[in-house]
User: Which sequence fits this backbone?
């Protein structure tokens, strides 16, 4: 029995992606060679890298708009320092909406002045600050579009002349946005795009070249852009599996199609959280994430019974992060609506049996 | 037909590793979940990481000797800058034996004074310099144990009081050495250890804490040591597949067992290069690599015929690097002796038909 996998990341990918990736480990492109034993300079793998980059730009609607898509290593955590290394000459503005924003902000401080334009730490990050000012002389403004741990998501991005840098690790490719408003978008693959081990960085070419410090080659966006993500050996398997996932999304109808499904999943789970007297949502309603629904049991509800019921139903990975407690249902692109319906049925069964 | 894959890296891995890795993508540990969709904090994956780290230390004979094994991202190229970031306060000594040494040296220069103690660039890196002096006040001495492009390998490491840092990307786990002579050993996985996407870093704990600069978290060895390679999401698939490869090596009898096979493979190919009048070796004999045999055709030999013959025999990946030309037969741990014998048979057929 296949599980209903609500893991926060690494997380569920489409079944056809698992099958194709598994097959490629045995015999890739009928070469009688494994995907992971061929040269990354071979034409078969170069085609994979080129296709993955092209699909990323196409799906985001950024083709022909001066952007490059890179597949790098090190996760969003590496981007926390690379963005600052490459962009921060004098001052940067950061919006603090949770654990990952805070970490990004901490790394940036090694490179220059950092202004925290707003923070929702006062309420354990259960909302997205609004109405803050971004200093017009900032080199860039950094934000985190979706906060996996707290279950909040930025619905409206600020209007600013300052270049915007966004960590979209946990909601990229999940909803339509005007992605051309951003100068840099980065995302660890292991939510909506692929397995852990590669990071998509989408860069507007004109954002670079404005800092005076020397940048080590591996941290220099320019180097990776010039070498088309092949400055050194890329993480072959993670890039290939990301390409498969992006292909799956394109065949499904792209971001506009998946956004509708994500909307349905979110309505299904939040509807039940709001209806069922045994549950209470963690995040403020207007800022609720469509990727990660965070919720707690109400006072006196029987946690042991609920835990037993969801485990019996084949549900995996809904324990909340220790910073929030309770539960977290992560519903990334590859999660079928059916799995959310199974969870809701369990919540209703829990109500009946309580 | 399975190919005879002489690719320089990414390269051949044991067939049983391909099979187990492929299966884990579909269903890992009978969890009814894919390896790549589970949390990296789950007990099943934590066990993989712990086992991979323990196997690395065990195979190198470094258990209980004050070392930690880390699985990081970014390849050896990231280590070029991380070693300098973490260790270079005043001056470092580098031995230049080829392309990768040169790149390591270039990155280190951003962080302090770099002394090139010797270089074999004068003869296109076809030998390993000897008899050089390492300044006793250097923070560390850096060398590259095996040079994939040129086919040379350090047989005797210098006796020095200066801490030794070695890039063993292309010959780690291939031969017995006193690994405790090194303070840091690093190696991109994609030759003898696994697929591209992770890098083994073996560190002696007392080497750290000697520089005054602030180090970004992702570049700080101390951070990764304290978090047991789990500061952020590790490259799950690459670590798992590396673990499988290290298990395979242990079951085979460890480094001493594979060294004998590697010795046989090297004698087989170099014996033919030296015997066959149509071929000439590139590297000086005493410095020949047991991992990568580089050779050219002698004047007037028919390259088109040779290329036709090895392709017909199912041989893959023996074109030489553009810096050297000719051919390169990479014979990493997982390459069976039989494949080398097939190549030698082709070289002999070429002689008969020429």
Assistant:
């Amino acid at each position: 029995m296949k599980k209903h996998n609500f893991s926060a990341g690494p997380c569920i990918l489409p079944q056809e992606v698992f099958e194709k990736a598994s097959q490629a480990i045995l015999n890739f492109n009928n070469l009688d060679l494994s995907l992971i034993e061929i040269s990354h300079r071979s034409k078969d793998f170069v085609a994979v890298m080129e296709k993955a980059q092209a699909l990323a730009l196409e799906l985001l609607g950024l083709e022909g708009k001066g952007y490059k898509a890179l597949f790098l290593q090190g996760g969003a955590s590496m981007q926390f320092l690379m963005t600052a290394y490459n962009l921060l000459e004098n001052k940067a503005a950061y919006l603090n909406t949770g654990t990952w924003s805070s970490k990004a902000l901490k790394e940036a401080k090694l490179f220059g002045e950092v202004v925290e334009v707003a923070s929702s730490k006062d309420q354990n990050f259960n909302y997205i600050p609004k109405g803050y000012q971004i200093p017009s002389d900032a080199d860039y403004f950094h934000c985190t579009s979706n906060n996996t741990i707290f279950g909040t998501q930025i619905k409206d991005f600020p209007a600013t002349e300052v270049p915007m840098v966004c960590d979209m690790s946990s909601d990229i490719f999940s909803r339509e946005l005007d992605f051309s408003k951003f100068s840099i978008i980065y995302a660890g693959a292991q939510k909506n795009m692929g397995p852990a081990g590669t990071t998509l960085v989408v860069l507007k070419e004109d954002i670079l070249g404005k800092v005076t410090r020397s940048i080590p080659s591996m941290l220099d966006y320019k180097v990776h852009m010039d070498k088309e993500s092949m400055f050194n050996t890329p993480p072959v398997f993670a890039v290939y599996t990301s390409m498969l996932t992006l292909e799956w999304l394109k065949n499904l109808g792209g971001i506009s199609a998946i956004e509708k499904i994500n909307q349905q999943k979110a309505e299904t789970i939040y509807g039940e959280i709001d209806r069922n007297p045994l549950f209470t949502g963690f995040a403020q309603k207007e800022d609720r994430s469509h990727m990660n629904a965070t919720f707690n049991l109400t006072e006196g509800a029987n946690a042991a019974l609920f835990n037993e019921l969801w485990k019996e139903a084949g549900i995996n990975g809904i324990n909340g992060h220790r910073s929030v407690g309770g539960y977290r249902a992560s519903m990334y692109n590859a999660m079928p609506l059916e799995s959310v319906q199974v969870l809701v049925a369990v919540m209703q069964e829990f109500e009946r049996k309580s």
The mean pLDDT of chain A is 97. The first helix of chain A runs from residue 15 to 26.
